[in-house]
Amino acid sequence: PLFQAMESEISAAFDSGEPEDVLSRAFKLAVTREDICTLQPLGWLNDRIMNFYMGLLVERSKKEGYPAVYAFNTFFYSKLSSTSHKGVKKWTKGVDIFEHDVILVPIHLRIHWTLLVVDLREKTIKYFDSLGQKGDHICKTVLKYLEEESKEKRNIELTASEWTLHSMGTEEIPQQNNGSDCGVFVCKFADFISRDKPIVFTPEHMPYFRRKMVWEIIHQQLL
Which DSSP state fits 17? Predict the structure, then answer.
């Protein structure tokens, strides 16, 4: 019965009411029915859904037993790549990102979502792309950002040679089999990584993940 109740709630989120109805508020974001509808099959996830979900992952990471997670929002990387560190240094005002274990950087490449993950414990920067494209230049851009951020905020020089940069290969992570699931892949990569779990899902899980995310966003609680 619980599962049926959840299913009918998810269907109602898609089908009843006006596009501008606000269905969830948190993390200084208001998610409307129109936003939620991007989670319908083959919908293209928008910035608000991506950022809200990252917010849920960060909230969960404050609980006992999870790595400490910091997530940049989806506009960070495009701003960084067009302006360098000085254009984004205010984004971390009052925050020491180096006090975290994992930093998530969701990236919007015009018509595709990807994810960059900094693991401060391992000194690794990994790039996750569900279409298998390489992001070595993106890893380098973020490492340079970390060097400048560390120098500016903590007066500590990072040693670039101690860091490992790696674009995940198609044999290492699951790949999407359509043109619209990249956002869901990014959210689920981030979900598994932020629990220190191996990435074991497949493209077949996507319809289920989409519906689950609707419930999680509305209830502001990860299942």
Answer: S
Q: What is the pTM of this model?
A: 0.94
Average confidence (pLDDT) over 121-136:
96
- Of 34, 63, 69, which Cα lies nearest the Cα of 49? 34
Integer CA distances (angstroms), 168 to 34, 128, 174, in order? 33, 6, 10
Q: Which domain covers residue 40, as residue numbers? A: 4-219
Which of 35, 100, 129, 191 is catalytic? The answer is 129
Active-site choice (112, 119, 166, 205): 112
- Give the domain CATH number at 194: 3.40.395.10
Domains in the chain, number: 1
Q: Check if the beta carbon of residue 194 is closer than 8 Å to that of residue 67.
A: yes
Mean pLDDT to the nearest integer, 118-133: 96
User: Burial, 86: exposed, middle or buried (Cβ in 10 Å; 0-12, 13-18, 19+)?
Assistant: exposed
70-75 own/partner pairs: CB under 8 Å, 24+ apart: 70/95, 70/97, 70/100, 70/102, 70/103, 70/104, 71/103, 71/104, 71/105, 71/106, 71/190, 72/103, 72/104, 72/105, 72/106, 73/47, 73/106, 74/47, 74/50, 74/106, 74/107, 74/108, 75/47, 75/108
Indicate if 129 belongs to the active site.
Answer: yes
136 flagged as catalytic: no
Is 182 among the catalytic positions? yes
Instruction: Name the E strands within the chain.
Output: 22-26, 29-32, 69-71, 102-108, 113-119, 124-128, 164-167
Percent of the chain surpassing pLDDT 90:
83
